[in-house]
Every structure is written in structure tokens, then in C-alpha cells.
What does this fold into?
Amino acid sequence: MEKKKYPPQMYPKYYEPSNDAPCVCGSGRKFKNCCAKKYCSEALRQSSSFYNSGLYEKALKHTRYHLTWYILCVKAHTTNPLAAAFFKTSEMLKVDIEALSEILEQIHHCYYKTGRSKEFPQVISHLSSIIDDPRWELKIIYSQALWYLVDKDDDASAYQKIASVDIDTCTDHNILALYIHVVPQPVQFSRIINIIDRLICHTDSPAEKLQYTVLKGIKYFELSLQSEAEEIMTMAISDYRKLPEEKHSEYGDLQFASALGLYGDLRSDNTALKESLLITERLIEASINKNHSSVHLGDLLRTKGNALQSLKRTKDSIAAYEASLRVNPSEIIKVFLARSMLQENNIIAAKNTLTTVDIQQMDNGELLDLGLSWAFLAVLTRRKDDVQQAINALKRPTLHSPVWIKQRDKWLIDLLEIKPESDGGIISRLLSSLSKYAILTPNIFGVGINVNRIIDDAISAQGERPHLGK
Ligand SMILES: [Zn+2]
It folds into this structure.
């Protein structure tokens, strides 16, 4: 870049605070002891590579250097009133708000990983005043709500924050996705559908469009509106298929593979399941070549395991789940692994696996999955103690949707009727109903996301940054 062309007041350096003033990045330290002389554009890339190597303190420092650089640039753009007026009405401000909110997200991950999550709210409130624009205000609210949800595990406070936004007119898809996740249930069906429709409409990402459309289909399916559900999913899949190559992303393709898997499960359509498997295998190969994070690879292997399990290639699915556990240990994978072991009729191995699951680390959706796996096991063994285990496990998750509460009651009643000599009727009824709902459980809570994973997934050098809803 030919620097000479710009007047000096366009340079970030011109807007540095004095050495003893608090630093621009919100760390609370003096500028001279924090970002002075170190801030620069390239720091973001360095922070990603430190983060991916597990060097979180270094990652945090470099994210701050980048943040300070960006804020000083914004100041350089806006300090002159005339320039500021132009800036506010231009596309540039929108771009800057998006970029800053991504840096904010990255800094959040760093604070979380360094165990200094307590300090993050002070950073957010420091940053809230750097841009005077309603869109930036929304990003700040989103960040605060996410902190309550992820760092404090406090859904109620997260909801209070989000509810300060007028949800009925909101078009910010991060806010809407988070709202669906934290809103106290039950919520009217038409209201949820309305919010999902706005999510679909206001996201530019084909991957998210696909994901939200599938979610809409699932909501219809939960109400037993099967043909509407299938029609919605068929559309979502065919829209994604029509995308030109340059609009594909690895994340989008993974969503596509998952959608095909779900569709294949719902319709017992092996062609869709095989396509899901093929895409996942291709993504796994690419992921290994590109040295992606173990969380990402773990997710891919799990999707592969699911497709193989549905295709009844049980041994291969067990191998995929075991590989997933090796790269990224996770309680829910054990639940899926146990289900494949049950398919193999290896009841002892399944039971051992389910017994080692740490329920403290699971959210409601995962707990329901665990309950379903215990129920499968109890139906196969028909032993009194297994039935009791299944009942206890099914009672554990807090369910909100009337559809699921009713369904769980039915299972509990049926399970109580199981005797060692039972066969036919009740057994096959239970198996088929458990199977139908087991397909849906990974998708029924929130937007199909696991909040605990947002943090782990977060930063990849390729700039594929998951936000909520991924
Ligand atoms: Zn600083």
C-alpha cells in the first residue's frame, strides 16, 4: 500500500492514547504496558495459530493487539465529523461492525480458555461505547448473553439480556438463534416458526439457511406433521444441492451431510444415507490433510458413525465412533457407540460403555439420548434392573415441549410393563417408537447446537468461524 497518499490523520497511530491512559483493548492495563508498539493487523493470524496450539495466554495477547489496531483504525475513520457522517451511512461501518464482533468473539474464547472468563464483561462494557450504532449495540447484547450462557451456565440471565431486544422486529440472526436457545418453554408453535423463518431470511450463509430450514422441518415433525416436515427438508436439501461450487464451505457441506442423514433416517432412504456417508468421508480426508482442530475431526467422525449406523454397517460405525473418541473425547459419542454395540447384540460392551458416561457433562438433549440408549438396552435384556436404569435415565432431562413430555410418559408406562418373558406387541412397539425419536434427539434442543462446544469449535486459522447455530 502506498502510504504517502493518505493524510496523517488517517493513520491509527494518530489516535493512540497517552502512555499512562487505560489501554484501548479494555484489558484495564496502562497503554504502555499493554498494546503500545505491538498493535497491528497481522496479530489476528498469529493469535489463531497460538490458539490452535493451545497457547491461550499468547493468543489472548495477540487478539488484543489486533483489537487495538482495529479500534484505532475506526477512530481514524470517524474522528473527522465530515468523514464520520459519510462513514456512518456507508457499507464500511457494517463491515467494521462485523469484523469487530468477530474479534470480540475471538477474545471471548481466549478469556474462557485462559480461565479468566470473569474479566470478559469488563472488556465488553469498555467496547460498547466505541461505535454509536444500533447494530453494534446488538452485538454487545449478544456477547453479554453468550457470556451468561456459556461461561456462567445461566440461561435465565442470558434470556433476560436477549429479551431486552425487540425480538418481533429483530433481524439479527445471531440474536434470533440465541433467543430460540434460551427462551423459556413452551413457546407457541407459530411464534417459533416465525422466528425460524426470519433466521432463514436474514442469513447470507447457505450453510445456516440449510440448518435453519432443517430445524423448521424438525419442528413440524415433532407435531407429527410428517408430510410437511419431509417437504421442507426436501426443499432445503435440493436448494443446497443447486449451489455453485464457490458457495460451498466445509461447514456447509457437513450440515448438508447431516441433513441428508436425517432425511435418510426419516424416510428410510438408503440413497440419501449413502450420499451423506460419501460427503462425510471426503470431508474427513480434507480435514486430516489440512490439520484441522480435533473437535472438527471428532464431529466429522461422529457424523460418519451416524450414517454407518443407519445403514446397518454396525462394525464400521463402531470404528468411526471409537476414532472420534480418540481425537476428541466426548460423552455423547459414548452414547452413540453403545447404540451400535446394541445393534451388534453386544449387550455387555454397551452396558459398560453407558455406565462410564459422565452425566455432569451433558446437556438436556444429550441426557435424553442417554435415556433412549438405556431404554433400548432394557428392551433387549428385559431385566428388571436394566428397566429401572432406563426409567431413571429417561426421567433425568428437563423436557419442555408437550410433544416430548407426552412421549416420555408413554415410554415410562411401557417400560414398566416389560417382563422377562415379554415379546411381540409391547417390545416391537417400544423399539419402533424409540427408534423414531432417537433420530430426532440430536436436533430437538435449541437450534441443534451444543453450547458447550461453541467455545471449543471456535477458532480455526481458515477463518471458518462458527457462531451460534453451528
Ligand atoms: Zn491492550
User: Anything to note?
Assistant: Confidence is low (pLDDT under 50) at residues 444-470. The chain has 22 helices and no strands. Residues 56-78 form the longest helix (23 residues). The radius of gyration is 25 Å.
